[in-house]
Amino acid sequence: MSTQKPLVLVTGGAGYIGSNTTLQLLDAGYDVVVVDNLSRGHRAAVDPERLREVDLLDTDGLYRVLTERPVAAVIHFAAFIAVGESMKTPEIYFRNNLAGTLSLLTAMVRAGVKNIVFSSTAAVYGMPDVSPIPESAAKRPVNAYGETKLMVETMLDWFDRIHHLRGICLRYFNASGADPLCRAGESHEPETHLIPLMFEAIRSGKPMTLFGEDYPTPDGTCIRDYIHVSDLARAHIVAVESLLAGGPSNRYNVGTGTGYSVMEVVAAVEHVTGSPVPYSFGPRRDGDPPSLVADSSRLQGELGWKPVDSDLPRIVDTAWRWFNRDR
Fold first, then answer.
1. Integer Cα distance of 251 and 135 in angstroms
2. Which domains does the chain have, with CATH numbers?
């Protein structure tokens, strides 16, 4: 007879990666409660019975949610994520990403919740010296977004040392694709991710801007490690399971080890959709490294995770089906 797995609290669970991870947790038999203030998430992405509308900076509100029922672990997605925005208004990134996380950790300590999986970023590495990037690479963020994530990682180290709050940080690259059953996908407002922006350009006929064509890469455009959101969700779940089994705090890269340039993504989108992508080139964005590709061998070796959905055609196909779901 099957038994209900523990309760996991997902912050930012009304957002893109959070909603996909919530679905996979439920599929795997976990109970889930979602905390989201809906400033950038979507009410429709969450079962209303599971949603708690609480701002991350409301420590008392978070404490109340954490003590409604016993919470085994927290998966923390609630963050602002746009590199360009972080270089224009860093203050909102430090307030939400850093102060918000401090509020969450304070509530967890008060509630006695000892396990957290933190959605970090490859942006902590800045301009890496080697590729694929190992976890041991130097941490030199070149944008405010990456700096906030690195500061949270440091904060987690101290909470582990002092409060025995164990945390696994997952540093990942370009989340992409949609739930294969078309239950969840990207719906950012405004959209900043490359693949849905290409779809929008195809639909509208208005050229999108590709930022930079003079990077030191084979075709002059940025190279990124695109990981399917379903693979990313599974990585967060295996990290939770490691902590629940008594595993230690740790840091892992999540990626495929294969990078694709912006122009290679254009070609994949055109192949899947059968339509040309209207675009023009603009200047580089501040804080954009030329290449970010993950070495995820530690995650694969230690926790048994493997990417199974992250080949580029599948990423684009699932994203395209999600984009056209209501059309």
1. 7
2. 7-175+226-255 (3.40.50.720)
Instruction: Report in angstroms the alpha-carbon separations of 222 from 127, 198, 210, 219, 283.
Output: 12, 15, 10, 9, 12
- The whole-angstrom separation of Cα 277 and Cα 221 is 16
d(Cα 299, Cα 286) in Å, to the nearest integer? 30
* Residue in 125, 145, 172, 215 annotated catalytic: 145
Long-range contacts of residues 160-165, Cβ cutoff 8 Å, at least 24 apart: 160/249, 163/109, 164/114, 165/105, 165/108, 165/109, 165/113, 165/114, 165/115, 165/116
Instruction: Please give the distance of CA 96 from its chain centroid, rounded to a whole number.
Output: 15
Residues written for the chain: 327
**172 counts as catalytic:** no
**In this structure, is the dihedral angle defined by the CA atoms of residues 190, 320, 220 and 127, taken in order, positive or negative?**
positive
Question: Alpha-carbon distance 229 to 7, whole Å?
Answer: 22
User: How far is Cα 186 from Cα 176, in angstroms, rounded to an integer?
Assistant: 8
73-118 residue pLDDT tens = 999 999 998 888 999 999 999 999 999 999 999 999 999 999 999 9
Q: Identify the pLDDT of residue 188.
A: 67
Residue among 162, 34, 147, 31 nearest 87 (CA):
147
Mention every residue, 6+ apart, whose C-beta is less than 8 A from residue 283: 211, 212
Rounded to whole angstroms, the Cα distance separating 53 from 104 reads: 14
